[in-house]
Design brief:
alpha/beta; single chain; UDP-N-acetylmuramoyl-L-alanine:D-glutamate ligase; four-stranded mixed β-sheet; 10 helices
Length: about 280
């Protein structure tokens, strides 16, 4: 659950400020990406854990409302649900994530859903669950030739073996910097999709960078923009679009998402994205 406060500026260390607004909103990178893909028309199955608290109950209700299939989501007795504490200030966000029940999405838990992974077109994970569970997901995807997308957020130390098992890796600019200290990114160019916020997105074609420019919109809340991109990119790859087309589609979805408060509130439908692209064209440099 996202706990969001808006303020004119971020507090310095030891400083207390008065916020302007406060609200709660369903979130979590995995859930956000699931909602983004489902809004676009994908059949989405979620694998994960929530707490047996009020937040957990609410999160499940939100996901059900979005037509996300939840056979892979189980509450953890005696555990709090994961939360993100978000400050919106100066046109951007700062986020602290508490994993809570997400930690119980263990390697063994993931194995319980091997048959689901095997019949999927695309599987996407992020790093708000244990690293070993992400590694197991990658192994199962490779075993069953299921496309695997890794959103390496929050940034963490990753094994080169895991990175090589991916079909696509979708870091933002700061996450890319973390990755570059762990592995020679020149070995991953065919997998890299780098999201850069207002500077758009970069992918590589024959090892040469290709930039898709961001669309000019009035941003109200950038929380969840990266998750919208990832969910939309996964959807486009799942319906067999090429990388360039998938990036254009996801870039437009992200542009639409930042125009409303809340990570999930502004996530668009396929019709909205296609209309936006018709009206605004494909931004490419």
């Amino acid at each position: 659950m996202d706990l969001v406060v808006t303020a004119a500026k971020r507090p310095e260390a030891g400083e207390t400020l008065l916020g302007e607004k406060f609200y709660t909103s369903p979130g979590g990178k995995g859930a956000n990406q699931a909602v983004a893909a489902a809004r676009l028309g994908a059949e989405v199955h979620m694998i994960g854990r929530v707490g047996d608290d009020e937040f957990g109950s609410d999160l499940l209700k939100f996901l059900e409302k979005e037509n996300i299939l939840l056979n892979g989501v189980e509450p953890v007795t005696g555990s709090a649900s994961g939360v993100a504490m978000i400050t919106l200030a100066e046109g951007d966000n700062s986020i602290i994530v508490y994993q809570g029940a997400n930690k119980e999405t263990t390697r063994d838990y993931v194995r319980n859903f091997e048959s689901l992974i095997a019949k999927s077109d695309v599987v996407i994970t992020q790093l708000e669950i244990p690293i070993e569970s992400v590694e197991e997901t990658a192994r199962l995807c490779q075993k069953h030739q299921t496309k695997f997308i890794l959103n390496p957020a929050p940034a963490a130390d990753l094994l080169v073996d895991l990175l090589m098992k991916t079909d696509f890796i979708t870091p933002n600019h700061s996450e890319r910097e973390t990755l570059s200290k762990q592995v020679d990114l020149n070995k991953l160019l065919d997998k890299l999709i780098i999201t850069e916020g207002k500077d758009g997105v970069v992918y590589f074609e024959n090892e040469a960078p290709r930039r898709i420019l961001s669309h000019s919109v009035t941003a109200v809340d950038t929380t969840g923009a990266g998750d919208t991109f990832n969910g939309a990119f996964a959807y486009a790859i799942g319906i067999k679009k090429d990388v360039e087309t998938a990036c254009h589609f996801a870039n437009a979805a992200a542009a639409l998402s930042v125009q409303k408060l809340g990570a999930q509130a502004g996530m668009p439908t396929k019709e909205e994205v296609n209309e936006f692209l018709r009206n605004n064209g494909k931004n490419k440099s």
